[in-house]
Amino acid sequence: MHERVSGRSALDARGALVSRLLAGLGPARDYLGIALLGVVLWLLLAETNAFYSSVLAAILIWTIATSGLNIIAGLGGYPSLVQGAFYGIGAYGSAIAMQWGQPYWAAVPEAMAAAALLGLVIGVVFSRTRGQYFAIGMLFSGLVVALILNNWRSLTHGALGLTVEFGFANIDQLNVAIAATATLALGFFRFVSRSRLGWRLLTILENEDLAEHIGVPTTRTKLTGLVLSAAIGALAGTLIGQYNGTISPDLFDYFVGFVMFVALSVGGAGRVLGPLLGSVFIVGVPNLLNLPSGIGLLLAGLIFVGVSILLPGGFMSAIDALLLRLRPKAGPP
Amino acid sequence: MSGFLEVEGASKAFGGIHAVEDIDFAVPEGEICGVIGPNGSGETTLLGLLSGTYRLDRGAIHLKGRRIDGLSAHRTVQEGVARTFQTSRLLFRSPLAANLAAAAAARPIASGDPATEPAELLALVGLAGRGGTVCSSLSNSEQRLAMVAVALATRPHLMLLDEPAVGMSPGEAAALAHVIRRIRDERGATIIIVEHNMHFLMGLAERIMAMNAGRKLAEGTPAEIRRDPGVIAAYLGA
Amino acid sequence: MFAQAVANGVVLGALFALLGAGLTLTYGVLQVPNFAQAGVITLAAYTMLWLNQSAGWSFWLAVGGGLAVGGVISVLTARVAYRFVRTRPLAAPVVALGMLLILDNIALVLFGGDHVSLSPPYAGDVIHLGPVNVPAVGVALVATAALALLGLYVFLQRTRVGRALRAVSQNAEAAAMLGIRLERQYAVAFFISGILAGLAAFAYGPMYAVFPYMADAILLNAFVVVVLGGLGNVVGAAVSGLFLGLLESFGAVYVSAAYQTLIGFAVLLLMIVLRPSGLFSSSERRIA
Asked: For residue A99, how many C-alpha atoms fall within 13 Å in the half-sphere facing its CB?
């Protein structure tokens, strides 16, 4: 009849967010903390040697993409597996727009708009589906998008890939952009999670059937969440294009979307810092250890199954538990 | 026809099953109306049609002159219709007060709306002081009362209660009946109750509609329904 | 041209029917989209290859070995991953995908990424039926599918275990109350699904080459077949598989070969909008 609260439940952390709405954590403090973090990240990005800096750049770009994913998947609870497609559209969209003569600062919003539109279409098409079939629909949509773009050789050069025109004055500017965007992405998520959209998504996560009956426009809310996730995913894609200089179709592969979801789950879905922690682990570790991609993916799968079983709330929930133990007198929020 | 709630020719089928077939009935404002029928007669489906959970196949539903069939569930809430469910539906991992806050945010507050402070709602349904309890920790009867409070938080004109007294002891059911009367008296809500607990309903409802196999069987005061030969046959024959 | 399209369609349809039947079987009992089945196909194919070429077993013995491995791996994926999904059905596709990645990449790590060839004794032969040319492996595929599906049908209708499986598929709670051990039925369903995957590997491998991601492309089509036939409906899946195979074959001939998968996707969209419960069942199992 009713579900039991379980200490291990992934949803505890997110369910607590709804009640934290009432308690409040002083928003200014959070944003200041995020901004400070951003400065630290930029310093690391700019000052460490080329190898570590490139790993950090990859981590931060993934943080942006997974922070976007955090909206529909973390707050809304819908395991969107199509984020990889939006990421790819961001990369290819901006690169192609620049090929057509658009300046970089115009190409980025254009690519984001394209991804948002696609997200809207996919969401509307599959909005009639229930539960897990929505997730499956998104997975297959991603597959089809990848297929179309892969085969549209005149536009994307297929497997050959594209070179990306550099839109910044120099690498320092790019580093600033990456760090700043990551900071903005985290801050934006913080903002959304406390907004009306955020608690509507959380309500849908907790009990979608009830949500509809206490006045939450579930379809519209989910679509909004998906569109925002798509746009932010594309934003990350534009940056990876700039950073790598070339892009290829494996940006789109369905397992990119899956690994992003793994990163989010490992870090802590629904938490502001979850994407950062998850990306550090999922992107940072294999890169630092220089693992071949097959092993990397195998690990991603194993980690995902492991995290689902052992630590559903991700690293953030482990940190929560640790903090609780260090401050036993602190009551529940 | 009274002008408050008017249902005309309502029909709904699921696959080959005609859950609700050609129902006509009307409820005047401020009435407590009961709906009874043997299991599977379509009462819950009828509630679902009124609340926007299901779409009518045929017919029309008007609330205060406005057509509400065809609206989604959340739009129907905007029109002032709220419902409870046969099995508890709450945000179980959140405290009761959070549930009430979420429901209260459903509609913009208009002047003249009754208060929806959590404390007031909780006091009204008999759960005073329980706002901080996480809903999964509430007992079955408390959860049913909580659902009523949550529905009330949306400031409805029409409340649809689906077997609210299920699993309650006679004492708890009597307290619930008192709560429902207070809701009608103090909040001005019209109330439709689907119930199988006859003792509970007969003392509470002012009028009862009896259904059988998706169709309306009889309509009248509790005394009239009790004596109706068709109703008796349907229940004894079941 | 038309006849050739029909012939190709029948071969493709047989493959889809085989895959769809296995997928719908596991859907019926656990409501999980068993994407990992594609990984089972891969590992079964590699096992057959390894047994045949490295361990020196005869071809048919190697096939048998591959089938057994397929069944076992399939049951293991259910035991390891899918039981957690029962309390959180929304997570099912992601968990299934995770298992798929694990299996695919185990294959990659163990056997390398090269495309290798599974060669039955009749590999090069082509059979001529009037104006139509069908490779012998294609005929083998159709024969295998027909026999396997027939066997499955008999199993489900005539044996006690099979009937128990159908009972669980229709109503797990009621079946449990009748004394049917659910866990055992899940194992049976997944084992059979694994065998069917192994048969698909044996039939599909020679036609399309063996490599770690060999089966991923047909995932979508297999799922569409399941939706068409009705979730849990084996006969429906078999017929739908044939139908989809013919549809895509004609699409490939008359429209474009690269976009075959798109046809499957388009069919899925149509089903969602028009008839989510499938072409054959009026059951309440719907995806929309």
From this structure: 15
CA angle, B25 then B27 then B32, to 5°: 125
As for the ipTM of the complex, it is 0.89
pTM of the full structure = 0.86
Contacts of C282 in chain B (CB under 8 A): 15-16
B5-89+156-237 is a CATH 1.10.10.10 domain = no
Scanning every residue of chain A, which has its alpha carbon at the shortest distance from the alpha carbon of B78? A215
Q: Which two structure tokens, joined as six digits, stand for A52?
A: 């570590």
Gap from C260 CA to chain A (nearest CA, Å): 10
Nearest C-alpha of chain A: how many angstroms from B153? 9
Closest approach of chain B CAs to the CA of C88, in angstroms? Answer: 15
Smallest CA-to-CA distance from A58 within A257, A327, A276 is with A276
B171 with B159: CB under 8 angstroms? no
Beta carbons of A19 and B89 less than 8 Å apart: no
Tens of pLDDT along chain C (288 residues) come to: 788 888 888 988 998 999 899 999 888 888 888 888 888 988 998 888 888 888 888 888 888 999 999 999 999 988 887 777 777 777 788 888 888 888 988 888 888 777 777 777 777 777 787 778 788 878 888 888 999 999 999 998 898 888 888 888 888 778 888 888 888 888 899 999 999 999 988 877 776 667 676 666 677 888 889 988 888 888 889 999 999 999 888 887 766 666 677 888 888 888 887 777 777 765 556 667
A216 touches chain B (CB under 8 A): yes
Q: Which residues of chain C have a Cβ shorter than 8 Å from any chain B Cβ?
A: 282, 284
Q: Which fold has domain A27-317?
A: ABC transporter involved in vitamin B12 uptake, BtuC (1.10.3470)
d(CA A260, CA A59): 11
